């Protein structure tokens, strides 16, 4: 594989300023891509990421949008396209709240669906309208998407629907654009620190993901044969199997 396999391409990563999105954005830049950094609240982190990507000699642009507001979501890609054509869309932004069927309010339900499902739908639709042949969409999923249980109820349902949408969209957008999913397991503890110390007991690999493992998963989906579409790859240490 060439040293910079993504050179000449531009990747839009939603929720890119912090945590996993930031790691994915830096992986794209190190692989040679220019990066559109979407964020909602993390203005300082988005700017520091732009500086870090510029130091890698790649271009980076920062766009702020609340993706629970469909009018903001619908205008995002048309705005970005005035500056640069986008070749890769990585739907990463999400909310993950410890709600049950009983405790989730209608507002909780609507917020999760709006960000975790409706935003990827609207962004993918807009992306497909402007993308050249060879475009790629990667939806960041969760092992829970294909093994839905009762925990994090609205989140789990939204990710299950996003997994289904990954496959439906792969058919709808072929042969121009591939659509695949990266289903993650224990990568980073939630920002609120709410995590069970027992978590690794249920992971066949008995550990959290190592530095670089999700980045490699994403780069695979951005460089793999275009004959791979509608695929969901788990980077979860085997969690979805048990
Ligand atoms: N952490 C894990 O171990 C793990 C495990 C399985 C799956 N995943 C998946 O991996 C992805 C990233 O996980 P993460 O833990 O890094 O996520 P996170 O920190 O909880 O959230 C990612 C980003 O979503 C953005 N966001 C929140 N509300 C938004 C809104 N209203 N509009 C637009 N963007 C909004 C935030 O951007 P701002 O900071 O700018 O507000 C935030 O940085 C998610 O799709 C998640 O479901 C993560």
Description:
The protein has 242 residues and is of the alpha/beta class. The chain has one domain (10-241): Rossmann fold (3-Layer(aba) Sandwich), CATH 3.40.50.720. Helices cover 39% and strands 16% of the residues. It is built from six helices and seven strands. A seven-stranded parallel beta sheet has the order 3-2-1-4-5-6-7, with helices on both faces. Strand 1 (10-13), helix 1 (19-30) and strand 2 form a beta-alpha-beta unit. The longest helix is centred in the middle third of the chain and has 25 residues, at 106-130. It is globular, with a radius of gyration of 17 Å. The model has no long low-confidence stretch (mean pLDDT 97). The structure holds NADP nicotinamide-adenine-dinucleotide phosphate. NADP nicotinamide-adenine-dinucleotide phosphate (NAP) binds next to helix 1 and strand 5.
CATH top level label: Alpha Beta
Which structural class do the helices and strands define?
A: alpha/beta
Chain-averaged pLDDT = 97
Give the topology string: H per helix, E per strand.
EHEHEHEHEHEHE
**Physical arrangement of strands within the biggest beta sheet:** 3-2-1-4-5-6-7
Assign a percent range to the helix content: 25-40%
Features:
242 residues; single chain; alpha/beta; Rossmann fold; binds NADP nicotinamide-adenine-dinucleotide phosphate; 39% helix; seven-stranded parallel sheet; 7 strands
Q: What is the secondary structure topology, with strand pairs?
A:
Elements (H helix, E strand, L loop, with lengths): L9 E4 L5 H12 L3 E6 L3 H13 L4 E5 L5 H12 L6 E4 L14 H25 L4 E8 L10 H21 L3 E8 L28 H11 L8 E4 L7
Parallel strand pairs: 1-2, 1-4, 2-3, 4-5, 5-6, 6-7
Helix pairs in contact: 1-6, 3-4, 4-5
Bound molecules: NADP nicotinamide-adenine-dinucleotide phosphate (NAP).
